[in-house]
Amino acid sequence: MERLLVTGGAGFIGANFVRMASQRYRVTVVDKLTYAGNRASLPEGIDFVEGDICERPLIDELVSATDAVVHFAAESHNDNSLRDPSAFVQTNLVGTFTLLEAVRAHGTRLHHVSTDEVFGDLALGGTDAFTETTPYNPSSPYSATKAGSDHLVRAWVRSFGVAATISNCSNNYGPYQHVEKFIPRQITNILCGQPAKLYGTGAQVRDWIHVDDHNAAVLAILERGRLGETYNIGADQPQRTNKQVVETICDIMGGDYIHVADRPGHDQRYTMDATKIRRELGWRPRYTDLRAGLEQTIAWYADNRWWWEAGKGDVEKQYAQRGQ
Ligand code: NAD
Ligand code: TDX
């Protein structure tokens, strides 16, 4: 395997993946450059194609010229999916279908990147965790379309023998994450002299993982994973409420937070059991201290205002319309 086609490579996780994988592979990125895509996140020396994964002739041509596809492209923000789900259905379902038909036609290896949100949520206060066999029970239009895309991949493996793997990962943080998302929104609010904004009570629990740990796991699955298998990815962190995470950010940066309107249908708790990937592939997270990972991420946003400052105002205007 020498050549990789990375869909959604100009997005947060994709761009960090390209930075890691381009040290070992010849990488081509295909990305539509939606509001969430940014060419400036990509390193020099890779091939970039601006295009939509729903366009079959383009995807056929790119898939025919690669050894494997790593599929990150998606509409990824729950709050946006509550405002207008249509792009989520199009990109996450029709886009994944289009890719699957192309890899089926060309016999190409595919890794499909998915989320813990396909499993729904867990009750606050419990210690149970999602495993690879937890039944799917998605809550939002975003997670429903990701769940549907996972089912398509599984069906193409079983029905057509497509050489695919799937990973379901917990909440990522790190450099190049769009300022609409929780952690960069709070960091950049404080950098702009604004308070951090906590939805509702802030009692919800997310299972945070550094983006480089996620991407090292994706590479391990691509290189050594068993075809047809699904792997959960999570960093085995202690359970942390959103309020605790905001308090840590405020403590590091010297800022304040306020409570704002809650997200409708807000998932309460995500906790991942990543035993399978640890046991089968020997993968381990390297960022095990969230505070240290947040300090690194805060320093990145403070040093790279050019990367996020232009888009910040529009994002905050949209949140303000919803009382958030
Ligand atoms: P992102 O929104 O930052 O990036 C998505 C990228 O996909 C953007 O560059 C965008 O331009 C591109 N894109 C969107 N529609 C496209 C289309 N039709 N054709 C081509 N490109 C298109 O998302 P992210 O946070 O980097 O997430 C990447 C993947 O990882 C997604 O599949 C997401 O479901 C999954 N995931 C994310 C997290 C997380 O915490 N962010 C956790 C688990 C899984
Ligand atoms: O301003 C905010 N205040 C707040 O309290 C924002 C933007 C979010 N929140 C809360 C909502 C969630 O409980 O923080 C938590 C994290 O929110 P998001 O960053 O929007 O992430 P989440 O909805 O958990 O989904 C993320 O993880 C799984 C990614 O966006 C998905 O793409 C991934 O699949």
Automatic annotation (TrEMBL):
<dbReference type="InterPro" id="IPR016040">
    <property type="entry name" value="NAD(P)-bd_dom"/>
</dbReference>
<comment type="similarity">
    <text>Belongs to the NAD(P)-dependent epimerase/dehydratase family. dTDP-glucose dehydratase subfamily.</text>
</comment>
<feature type="domain" description="NAD(P)-binding">
    <location>
        <begin position="5"/>
        <end position="288"/>
    </location>
</feature>
<keyword id="KW-0520">NAD</keyword>
<dbReference type="InterPro" id="IPR036291">
    <property type="entry name" value="NAD(P)-bd_dom_sf"/>
</dbReference>
<dbReference type="InterPro" id="IPR005888">
    <property type="entry name" value="dTDP_Gluc_deHydtase"/>
</dbReference>
<protein>
    <recommendedName>
        <fullName>dTDP-glucose 4,6-dehydratase</fullName>
        <ecNumber>4.2.1.46</ecNumber>
    </recommendedName>
</protein>
<keyword id="KW-0456">Lyase</keyword>
<dbReference type="GO" id="GO:0008460">
    <property type="term" value="F:dTDP-glucose 4,6-dehydratase activity"/>
</dbReference>
<dbReference type="Pfam" id="PF16363">
    <property type="entry name" value="GDP_Man_Dehyd"/>
</dbReference>
